[in-house]
Amino acid sequence: MDQHTFRRRGLGLRGVDDRVSPGYVLYAPLTSNTAHLVSTTGKEVHRWTLPHRAGRHARILPNGNLAYNAAHPEAPALFPMWAKYRGGMMMQVSPGGEIQRQYSDPLAHHDQNHLDDGTLLYTTLEPLTPEEASKVQGGIPGSEAKGIVYGDCIKLVDPWSSGNESSSADFEVEGKGAKLLWSWRAIDHLDPAVFAAHPHYPREHWPLINSVSFDSEGNIIASSRNASSVFVISRATGEVLWHLPAPTVSQQHCAHQINESGDLLIFDNGVFRPGVSVPFSRAIIVSKEKVVKWEYKDPSTGGLGFFTPFMGSAQKLDGGNVLLCEAADGRIIEVTEGGEIVWEFVVPQLGDYKAVLGSKELGEMESIGFDYLSNAIFRAYKYRPDEVPWLKEGWLSNWL
Prior knowledge:
Blueprint: H1 5-9, E1 12-16, E2 24-29, E3 34-39, E4 44-49, E5 54-60, E6 66-71, H2 82-85, E7 88-93, E8 99-104, E9 108-114, E10 120-127, H3 130-135, E11 150-158, E12 165-167, E13 179-185, H4 186-189, E14 205-206, E15 209-214, E16 220-224, E17 229-233, E18 240-245, E19 253-257, E20 264-268, E21 282-286, E22 292-296, E23 313-316, E24 322-326, E25 331-335, E26 341-346, H5 359-367, E27 377-383, H6 395-399
Parallel strand pairs: 8-12, 11-14
Antiparallel strand pairs: 1-26, 2-3, 2-27, 3-4, 5-6, 6-7, 7-8, 9-10, 10-11, 11-13, 15-16, 16-17, 17-18, 19-20, 20-21, 21-22, 23-24, 24-25, 25-26
């Protein structure tokens, strides 16, 4: 009998309904250096093989290139969990696999956004001074990384104005490579009492921002995992304009605006949901008035059948359906506005971190419990057929 639970329960396409939206789903397994595009029938129709393992996720840009967030091979070892969620190599890759552009920041983590004007908006971190670190509230006492608290930063960068390869080191050299257009430090603008880390979190990284994106007014939507907060940052002043705290959200991910009214779609993980003893995940749409206008959680199990303790994404599709990524176990579903599942797919690529990590990084990963065959992904995205016009039947066989 197969002893791997996911494989025993079944991988690949698990079900499809005629109400599924047309298109292709993209995902990048975290234990590999590949990105995959599958049809609604569960057939893999395209694959990219990249030079580095997935740092987090991938997207397809309007020009057809893949925006791939890889793990920087020379990133410093800051603390054990850093090996799990760091990124640092932001590249654009053609459908044929050629790297068109590349930008690196070894301290980047979680989210990256390749914007239409060629700029990058992404999350990074830096060590706080002892004085700054003393202001950070919450977390496990004494759990700093070698006595250091790393604080989050958000950067907007023009990476390719003078070439197709650049790095954050270029900021120090006038006229060279990448240009820093805007930056923001959490410690300068967040009230540590309001954005205190939950008591069970190590104090190594605060406030652990796991998603950033622009709203329709040009301000920045950010999601903090260890403070269970979604907030909007004024690009002009850096101050917090809007704040959605717990218990509405709980260790959430992927907060982003979905319409002109300013509603946000959020993947709400729910690991330590206040007042709830049994954890469950959900996706919610929240208005500017902080009213939950829509919610999906698994109705057939009281919520127990849909849960990922970390990572995850939600994407509003044309026609009203929502694509959801139950990330830790590689499960992707599409649901209707009424909460019915119309497509279910489980990532079939079960991989071992040993295949993609060096010995030092592998030791860090194993020390935090990630020493098993995994099909985890950070996010999944769906694209209409007209958004991937380069895709042709038989293309995959030409590149494998």
